[in-house]
Write a structure and sequence with these properties.
heterodimer; A: 284 residues; alpha/beta; four-stranded antiparallel beta sheet; 10 strands; B: 272 residues; mainly alpha; two-stranded antiparallel ribbon; flat
Chain lengths: 284, 272
């Protein structure tokens, strides 16, 4: 369980460029949940997840993971960081090793694991993101952009974190690559029962994957609810520069046109089932 | 850690000093630095302190912010002071084993510390009140007479502009890479010197790669816009001197005169 109480973060405090990035956020996320995080650019999403990952210390407020308070005196921060895996935006720019294998092994070897365990985890993580064994001995700088991204994500997955945090992991990828990576993340979430926090600008991705969604606006927590509930507030989302999935938009237009479609539809599958149901009942 | 770098940081404002022509400020700072090394007495340093304080005051930049620029050079200043303190010949003031402190050493050490402090204060006041672009424009303009003897003034200024432009970008990049590697369990704090140096590798390699990539991108972008150096280029903001610059030069000349006066005075009276 991740518990945030009164979290604030201020950039460049006491300078001319002082700016509050996160203001008074209170949140409780349960273990094993798939959480979506959305907000316009500069709404404090990245800062928020970096604080949860133990990389950025909040200016004020408390963060507790499974009861252990982060940044407290008795807290071993390195150990806590192994618990949370953070994939930052454009993670391919953090690659540095001679070979893909060594780069993926960087995290696990920092954890002080045995050779065999590191090997197992590297193969496991590489396999998970679709990096073939023949690429492991190559230099990461010879790979294509999409492959580099996968290697970088594998580098975090190999640490087998209990909480996986992804900051726009699919930005700049082609549609096939995007779907594949998201599919793998979902698969991993289900198989290993880990908590996932996904930052994304794609309403479709968030609709398809998440249990609950956190909406940030100008550093403040704007909404936090079940995915279905969030997408019912289409007006409010639009006002803060976000939107709803296209299919939700389609359904609300249908409803306006007098078609008796139910509210709260946010995936194509749901819409299809609902429309089929209505059509059938009209026939009979 | 990265936020402590004040040197080269611009603090936007509309004060008298901000509004001076960059050429005036550059010339004044050159005179100021020369004068610092001419001062021979504490009386002169007092005058220097008053003049610098007036400049800082009229720039309307918080004193705390200006003084922050001194932090990174503290170590260097301390070492310089120690060298001067122990390695100057003269009348012995204190002796212990091979360590000797002379009266001349004490004076020289204090002078050195003061000189370095005012040097950094003056130059950081220049960069704090002048935007990097104005600064390089000023430098280019001042160097342009040297074009006749083959000094590539425009190219030098362009290189400086680009370098300054990328300081914040690279700092941000470094910050991001440090965060990413910390998240992967990299440890920068513990261990001896060698293991700490090794811990820098995961930061430096991605940083160099991204710096090269950015340089490449920028070169392509400049080519695409047919950039070809300084000939016949006009400026959006042409440099123009105003009555303020007259005041600026007047002030620095007056200051120089006062310093020379203090040197003569202290020489006559036999003061240090």
């Amino acid at each position: 369980m991740i518990k945030l109480s009164d979290i604030c973060y201020t950039y460049m405090s006491d300078g001319p460029f002082e700016k509050a990035a996160v203001k008074n956020v209170n949140l409780t996320l349960n273990s094993g949940e798939f959480i979506g995080l959305m907000g316009h650019t500069g709404s404090g999403k990245s800062t928020l997840i970096q604080m949860i990952a133990g990389i950025v210390k909040p200016t004020s407020g408390k963060i507790a993971i499974d009861g252990q308070e982060l940044y407290a005196k008795n807290c071993d921060m390195r150990k806590m960081r192994f618990k949370t895996g953070l994939v930052m935006q454009y993670p391919e720019y953090q690659l540095f090793e001679e070979t893909v294998f060594k780069d993926i092994a960087f995290g696990p070897s920092n954890m002080g694991l045995s050779e065999d365990e590191i090997k197992r985890r590297v193969f496991f993580a590489a396999n998970l993101v679709g990096i073939g064994d023949e690429l492991l001995e190559k230099s990461p700088f010879e790979l294509s952009g999409g492959q580099k991204r996968r290697v970088a994500i594998a580098g975090v997955l190999a640490m087998e974190p209990e909480i996986l945090i992804l900051d726009e992991p699919t930005a700049g990828l082609d549609p096939a690559g995007r779907d594949e990576i998201l599919c793998k993340i979902k698969d991993m979430h289900q198989r290993l029962g880990i908590t996932v926090i996904l930052v994304s600008h794609s309403m479709e991705d968030l609709a398809n994957l998440t249990d609950r969604i956190v909406v940030m606006n100008h550093g403040e927590l704007a909404m936090f609810d079940k995915t279905a509930e969030i997408f019912k507030h289409s007006e409010e989302l639009k006002r803060i520069g976000l939107s709803v999935p296209q299919i939700t938009e389609v359904c609300s237009r249908l409803s306006e046109a007098g078609f008796p479609i139910a509210e709260g539809i946010y995936t194509v599958e749901m819409a299809r089932a609902e429309i089929e149901r209505i059509l059938k009942s009209e026939k009979s | 850690m990265l936020k402590d770098i004040t040197l080269g940081q611009y603090f936007p404002g509309k004060s008298f000093i901000h509004n001076l022509d960059p050429r005036t400020k550059i010339l004044c700072i050159v005179i100021y630095i020369t004068v610092i090394f001419l001062i021979k007495s504490f009386l002169g340093y007092a005058a220097l302190a008053i003049f610098t304080a007036l400049c800082v005051f009229s720039s309307k930049i918080p004193v705390k912010f200006v003084l922050r620029g001194l932090k990174p050079i503290m170590m260097f200043v301390a070492i310089t002071a120690l060298f001067n303190l122990f390695l100057t010949n003269g009348r012995v003031a204190w002796q212990w084993g091979f360590l000797t402190i002379t009266y001349e050493g004490i004076t020289l050490a204090i002078f050195m510390v003061l000189r370095l402090f005012f040097l950094v204060l003056g130059t950081s006041l220049l960069t704090l009140t002048t935007s990097p672009i104005a600064l390089t424009d000023g430098i280019e303009n001042l160097l342009s007479p040297l074009k006749r003897i083959g000094v590539p003034a425009h190219e030098l200024a362009m290189m400086m502009t680009i370098a300054l432009r990328f300081v914040p970008t690279l700092l941000e990049e470094t910050d991001k890479i440090i965060k990413a590697q910390t998240a992967r369990g990299a440890d920068f704090e513990s261990g001896n010197l060698i293991s700490r140096a090794k811990a820098m590798i995961p930061i430096l390699i991605p940083l160099f790669i991204s710096a090269f990539r950015r340089a490449d991108d920028l070169a392509v972008a400049m080519e695409c816009r047919c950039y070809r150096g300084g000939e016949n280029r006009t400026r959006l903001r042409a440099l123009k001197m105003s009555y303020r610059d007259g005041f600026g030069f007047g002030a620095i000349i007056l200051f120089t005169a006062i310093i020379i006066l203090t040197n003569i005075l202290s020489g006559r009276l036999g003061l240090v």
